[in-house]
Amino acid sequence: MRLRHKPWAKEKLEQHPQYVVAEPENLKGKWHEAFEKDQPLHIEVGTGKGQFVTGMAKANPDINYIGIELYDSVIVAALDRLIEADLPNLKLLNVNAAELDKYFTKNDVDRIYLNFSDPWPKTRHEKRRLTYKDFLKLYENILVDGGEIHFKTDNQGLFEYSLMSFSAYGLLLKYVSLDFHKSGYEGNIMTEYEQKFSERGQRIYRCEVKYQN
Ligand code: SAM
């Protein structure tokens, strides 16, 4: 993700507390209070400019969604989409996913989406990959028992690494596609990266994995 410094971004996020949760630690264990309806909660980690999570929230009004993004200069674009769509079942969080357990506790989250996560190809950066075992532990600590991770990427190396990481952790591989856009899957909502890479003819990999607790 190319980052452009936007000195006004933080202030804009603060001006929309109905969409961007200001003190997420206060909602730990009671996220339903942030939404109009008490219904399952799905989160996207590394939501970028929010095309996927906004599309999902529009398509599935019976599910609550949170888009989580580290950079204010990026999530501000997701905020613009949300202001436009004015969805009651979507919130945004401008936090680091490495600290998810500060904001969520066991059973808060029903499903986690990881889309086109940064690949961090160098071995010395393995710990930064969002499918590294420490992140899988973090996700387990906030998901319901039997919770799922749905993962899409264009990066074959990251996909192979992630399948091995999921498997070594003891996650059940429920669905694996090595060419997702040719798989006949219906109802896919594309992310920005997915749209860009598939328009260039690149193959998209996707899997669904489940915790066996
Ligand atoms: N999911 C979007 C898509 O598919 O178009 C964006 C993909 S982009 C390659 C990865 C995004 O994940 C970036 O916006 C990055 O800032 C965010 N990200 C990476 N590590 C993160 C972390 N630890 N916590 C929150 N967001 C993170």
UniProtKB/TrEMBL annotation:
On the tree of life, the source organism's domain of life is Bacteria
Task: State its Enzyme Commission number(s).
Answer: 2.1.1.33
**Pathway, per UniProt?**
tRNA modification; N(7)-methylguanine-tRNA biosynthesis
What segment(s) does the record annotate as region Interaction with RNA? 124-129
| The reaction(s) this protein catalyses | guanosine(46) in tRNA + S-adenosyl-L-methionine = N(7)-methylguanosine(46) in tRNA + S-adenosyl-L-homocysteine
Where S-adenosyl-L-methionine is bound, by residue?
44, 69, 96, 118
Q: State if S-adenosyl-L-methionine is listed as a keyword.
A: yes
Q: What class of enzyme is it?
A: transferase
Report what the protein is called: tRNA (guanine-N(7)-)-methyltransferase
Which GO molecular function annotations are given, in alphabetical order? tRNA (guanine(46)-N7)-methyltransferase activity
